[in-house]
Protein backbone atom coordinates (compact mmCIF):
# COMPACT_ATOMS: atom_id res chain seq x y z
CA UNK A 1 0.00 0.00 0.00
CA UNK A 2 1.53 3.29 -1.12
CA UNK A 3 -1.29 5.67 -0.30
CA UNK A 4 -4.66 5.74 1.51
CA UNK A 5 -7.22 8.45 0.82
CA UNK A 6 -10.31 9.26 2.93
CA UNK A 7 -9.50 6.46 5.35
CA UNK A 8 -12.38 5.72 7.74
CA UNK A 9 -12.22 3.38 10.72
CA UNK A 10 -15.24 1.15 11.20
CA UNK A 11 -15.61 -0.75 14.47
CA UNK A 12 -12.06 -0.06 15.61
CA UNK A 13 -12.08 3.33 17.28
CA UNK A 14 -11.14 2.10 20.75
CA UNK A 15 -8.29 -0.03 19.41
CA UNK A 16 -6.94 2.87 17.37
CA UNK A 17 -7.17 5.25 20.34
CA UNK A 18 -5.34 2.75 22.57
CA UNK A 19 -2.55 2.35 20.03
CA UNK A 20 -2.24 6.11 19.60
CA UNK A 21 -2.03 6.64 23.35
CA UNK A 22 0.57 3.88 23.66
CA UNK A 23 2.71 5.53 20.99
CA UNK A 24 2.33 8.90 22.68
CA UNK A 25 3.53 7.37 25.96
CA UNK A 26 6.46 5.56 24.29
CA UNK A 27 5.08 2.09 24.97
CA UNK A 28 6.92 -0.63 23.02
CA UNK A 29 4.49 -1.97 20.37
CA UNK A 30 7.04 -4.00 18.42
CA UNK A 31 5.39 -7.29 19.46
CA UNK A 32 1.84 -6.11 18.90
CA UNK A 33 -0.16 -7.08 15.81
CA UNK A 34 -3.72 -6.03 14.99
CA UNK A 35 -5.87 -7.90 12.51
CA UNK A 36 -7.79 -5.65 10.12
CA UNK A 37 -9.86 -5.75 6.98
CA UNK A 38 -9.39 -3.05 4.35
CA UNK A 39 -12.26 -2.31 1.97
CA UNK A 40 -11.64 -0.20 -1.13
CA UNK A 41 -14.83 1.62 -2.11
CA UNK A 42 -15.60 3.28 -5.42
CA UNK A 43 -16.00 7.05 -4.75
CA UNK A 44 -19.38 6.99 -6.51
CA UNK A 45 -20.67 4.40 -4.01
CA UNK A 46 -19.26 5.87 -0.79
CA UNK A 47 -22.55 7.37 0.43
CA UNK A 48 -24.33 4.04 -0.11
CA UNK A 49 -21.75 1.47 0.96
CA UNK A 50 -19.96 3.10 3.91
CA UNK A 51 -23.10 3.44 6.10
CA UNK A 52 -24.01 -0.17 5.27
CA UNK A 53 -20.50 -1.38 6.18
CA UNK A 54 -20.74 0.53 9.46
CA UNK A 55 -24.18 -0.90 10.17
CA UNK A 56 -23.37 -4.55 9.55
CA UNK A 57 -19.87 -4.46 11.04
CA UNK A 58 -21.37 -3.29 14.33
CA UNK A 59 -24.21 -5.75 14.77
CA UNK A 60 -22.89 -6.70 18.22
CA UNK A 61 -23.37 -3.13 19.43
CA UNK A 62 -26.30 -0.73 19.38
CA UNK A 63 -25.57 1.64 16.49
CA UNK A 64 -27.98 4.47 15.72
CA UNK A 65 -28.72 6.16 12.41
CA UNK A 66 -26.91 9.23 13.73
CA UNK A 67 -23.75 7.18 14.40
CA UNK A 68 -23.68 5.99 10.79
CA UNK A 69 -23.72 9.48 9.28
CA UNK A 70 -20.86 11.09 11.22
CA UNK A 71 -18.72 11.41 8.09
CA UNK A 72 -21.43 12.94 5.90
CA UNK A 73 -20.07 16.17 4.33
CA UNK A 74 -22.80 18.21 6.05
CA UNK A 75 -21.75 17.11 9.54
CA UNK A 76 -18.05 17.43 8.71
CA UNK A 77 -18.65 21.04 7.63
CA UNK A 78 -20.69 21.89 10.74
CA UNK A 79 -17.87 20.49 12.88
CA UNK A 80 -15.37 22.69 11.00
CA UNK A 81 -17.52 25.77 11.56
CA UNK A 82 -18.02 24.99 15.24
CA UNK A 83 -14.25 24.87 15.71
CA UNK A 84 -13.49 28.08 13.80
CA UNK A 85 -16.35 30.47 14.68
CA UNK A 86 -15.71 31.84 18.20
CA UNK A 87 -18.25 33.26 20.60
CA UNK A 88 -17.05 36.33 22.47
CA UNK A 89 -17.12 35.57 26.16
CA UNK A 90 -17.53 37.86 29.13
CA UNK A 91 -15.09 40.50 28.03
CA UNK A 92 -11.90 38.55 27.32
CA UNK A 93 -12.52 34.85 26.83
CA UNK A 94 -13.52 33.46 23.44
CA UNK A 95 -15.44 30.20 23.69
CA UNK A 96 -16.74 27.83 21.03
CA UNK A 97 -19.85 25.76 20.51
CA UNK A 98 -18.83 22.10 20.35
CA UNK A 99 -20.54 20.02 17.68
CA UNK A 100 -20.37 16.38 18.74
CA UNK A 101 -20.26 14.83 15.28
CA UNK A 102 -19.08 11.54 16.76
CA UNK A 103 -20.73 10.22 19.89
CA UNK A 104 -18.49 10.72 22.93
CA UNK A 105 -16.03 13.04 21.15
CA UNK A 106 -16.57 15.82 23.72
CA UNK A 107 -15.41 13.65 26.62
CA UNK A 108 -12.61 12.23 24.48
CA UNK A 109 -11.34 15.74 23.73
CA UNK A 110 -11.18 16.50 27.44
CA UNK A 111 -9.56 13.15 28.28
CA UNK A 112 -6.89 13.65 25.60
CA UNK A 113 -5.93 17.07 26.99
CA UNK A 114 -3.45 15.54 29.44
CA UNK A 115 -2.94 17.40 32.70
CA UNK A 116 -5.72 18.72 34.91
CA UNK A 117 -4.81 22.29 33.95
CA UNK A 118 -4.98 21.44 30.25
CA UNK A 119 -8.35 19.74 30.72
CA UNK A 120 -9.67 22.83 32.48
CA UNK A 121 -8.54 24.97 29.55
CA UNK A 122 -10.43 22.68 27.15
CA UNK A 123 -13.56 22.90 29.31
CA UNK A 124 -13.23 26.70 29.39
CA UNK A 125 -12.89 26.83 25.61
CA UNK A 126 -15.74 24.38 25.01
CA UNK A 127 -18.24 24.74 27.90
CA UNK A 128 -20.52 21.72 28.28
CA UNK A 129 -23.55 24.02 28.02
CA UNK A 130 -22.43 24.87 24.49
CA UNK A 131 -22.30 21.26 23.29
CA UNK A 132 -24.84 19.88 20.83
CA UNK A 133 -25.16 16.62 18.93
CA UNK A 134 -26.42 15.61 15.49
CA UNK A 135 -29.84 14.73 16.88
CA UNK A 136 -29.94 18.07 18.72
CA UNK A 137 -29.18 19.84 15.45
CA UNK A 138 -32.05 18.05 13.72
CA UNK A 139 -34.37 18.92 16.60
CA UNK A 140 -33.49 22.62 16.48
CA UNK A 141 -33.82 22.78 12.69
CA UNK A 142 -37.03 20.76 12.36
CA UNK A 143 -38.72 22.71 15.13
CA UNK A 144 -38.06 26.12 13.57
CA UNK A 145 -39.00 24.65 10.16
CA UNK A 146 -42.45 24.11 11.71
CA UNK A 147 -42.39 20.31 11.77
CA UNK A 148 -42.97 19.73 15.50
CA UNK A 149 -44.85 16.45 14.96
CA UNK A 150 -41.61 15.03 13.52
CA UNK A 151 -39.59 16.17 16.55
CA UNK A 152 -42.26 14.82 18.90
CA UNK A 153 -41.75 11.33 17.46
CA UNK A 154 -38.30 11.14 19.05
CA UNK A 155 -34.66 11.99 18.38
CA UNK A 156 -33.90 9.21 15.89
CA UNK A 157 -37.04 9.72 13.77
CA UNK A 158 -36.45 13.47 13.74
CA UNK A 159 -32.84 12.92 12.67
CA UNK A 160 -33.85 10.45 9.94
CA UNK A 161 -36.32 13.02 8.58
CA UNK A 162 -33.61 15.69 8.65
CA UNK A 163 -31.16 13.48 6.73
CA UNK A 164 -33.84 12.55 4.18
CA UNK A 165 -34.49 16.25 3.53
CA UNK A 166 -30.76 16.85 3.31
CA UNK A 167 -30.34 14.19 0.63
CA UNK A 168 -33.37 15.48 -1.28
CA UNK A 169 -32.19 19.12 -1.12
CA UNK A 170 -35.37 20.10 0.71
CA UNK A 171 -36.36 21.30 4.16
CA UNK A 172 -34.60 24.66 3.94
CA UNK A 173 -31.07 23.25 4.21
CA UNK A 174 -28.67 25.16 1.90
CA UNK A 175 -26.06 23.41 -0.22
CA UNK A 176 -23.31 25.80 0.86
CA UNK A 177 -22.89 25.94 4.63
CA UNK A 178 -21.36 29.22 5.73
CA UNK A 179 -20.77 31.10 8.97
CA UNK A 180 -24.21 32.71 8.75
CA UNK A 181 -25.94 29.30 8.65
CA UNK A 182 -23.94 28.15 11.66
CA UNK A 183 -24.70 31.27 13.70
CA UNK A 184 -28.41 30.99 12.90
CA UNK A 185 -28.29 27.34 13.96
CA UNK A 186 -26.69 28.27 17.28
CA UNK A 187 -29.34 30.98 17.78
CA UNK A 188 -32.01 28.30 17.28
CA UNK A 189 -30.20 26.17 19.86
CA UNK A 190 -30.26 29.06 22.35
CA UNK A 191 -33.96 29.62 21.63
CA UNK A 192 -34.71 25.92 22.14
CA UNK A 193 -32.68 25.60 25.34
CA UNK A 194 -34.20 28.72 26.88
CA UNK A 195 -37.73 27.65 25.96
CA UNK A 196 -37.02 24.22 27.44
CA UNK A 197 -35.91 25.90 30.69
CA UNK A 198 -39.04 28.05 30.87
CA UNK A 199 -41.38 25.13 30.21
CA UNK A 200 -39.55 22.94 32.74
CA UNK A 201 -40.03 25.58 35.44
CA UNK A 202 -43.78 25.65 34.80
CA UNK A 203 -43.99 22.02 35.98
CA UNK A 204 -46.84 21.00 33.69
CA UNK A 205 -46.49 17.42 34.89
CA UNK A 206 -45.38 15.89 31.61
CA UNK A 207 -45.17 16.40 27.84
CA UNK A 208 -42.36 18.95 28.22
CA UNK A 209 -40.63 17.94 24.98
CA UNK A 210 -43.85 18.22 23.00
CA UNK A 211 -44.78 21.57 24.55
CA UNK A 212 -41.35 23.02 23.73
CA UNK A 213 -41.25 21.99 20.08
CA UNK A 214 -44.86 22.97 19.36
CA UNK A 215 -44.43 26.32 21.14
CA UNK A 216 -41.36 27.26 19.09
CA UNK A 217 -42.95 26.00 15.87
CA UNK A 218 -46.01 28.15 16.60
CA UNK A 219 -43.72 31.15 17.19
CA UNK A 220 -41.95 30.47 13.88
CA UNK A 221 -45.30 30.30 12.13
CA UNK A 222 -46.52 33.57 13.66
CA UNK A 223 -43.24 35.29 12.74
CA UNK A 224 -43.21 33.67 9.28
CA UNK A 225 -39.80 32.24 10.09
CA UNK A 226 -38.27 35.68 10.64
CA UNK A 227 -36.34 36.28 13.86
CA UNK A 228 -33.28 38.38 14.64
CA UNK A 229 -30.90 35.44 14.95
CA UNK A 230 -27.90 37.78 14.66
CA UNK A 231 -28.88 39.52 17.90
CA UNK A 232 -29.37 36.20 19.68
CA UNK A 233 -25.93 35.08 18.51
CA UNK A 234 -24.31 38.36 19.60
CA UNK A 235 -25.99 38.56 23.03
CA UNK A 236 -26.38 34.81 23.62
CA UNK A 237 -29.86 35.40 25.06
CA UNK A 238 -33.44 36.01 23.92
CA UNK A 239 -33.99 39.39 25.57
CA UNK A 240 -31.92 42.19 27.16
Question: What is this entry, summarized?
Answer:
The chain is mostly helical.
What does this protein structure show overall?
It is a single chain. This protein is mainly alpha-helical and 240 residues long. It has eleven helices and four strands, in the order H-H-H-E-E-E-H-H-E-H-H-H-H-H-H. The strands form two sheets. It has a two-stranded antiparallel sheet. Strands 3-4 form a two-stranded parallel ribbon. A hairpin with a 5-residue loop joins strand 1 and strand 2. Helix 6 packs across helix 9 and helix 9 packs across helix 11. The radius of gyration is 20 Å and the shape is globular. The relative contact order is 0.09.
Write the layout of secondary structure elements.
Blueprint: H1 13-24, H2 46-57, H3 73-84, E1 87-88, E2 94-95, E3 98-100, H4 105-111, H5 116-125, E4 131-133, H6 134-144, H7 148-151, H8 155-167, H9 179-202, H10 208-222, H11 229-235
Parallel strand pairs: 3-4
Antiparallel strand pairs: 1-2
Helix pairs in contact: 6-8, 6-9, 9-10, 9-11
Amino acid sequence: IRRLRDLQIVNGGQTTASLARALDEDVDLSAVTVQMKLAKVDPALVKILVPQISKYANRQNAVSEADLTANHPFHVRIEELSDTVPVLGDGTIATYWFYEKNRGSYQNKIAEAGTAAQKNRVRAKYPSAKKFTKTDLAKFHNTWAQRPWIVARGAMKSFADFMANLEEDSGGIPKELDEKFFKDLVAKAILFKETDRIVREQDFGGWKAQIVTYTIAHLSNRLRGNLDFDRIWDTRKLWP
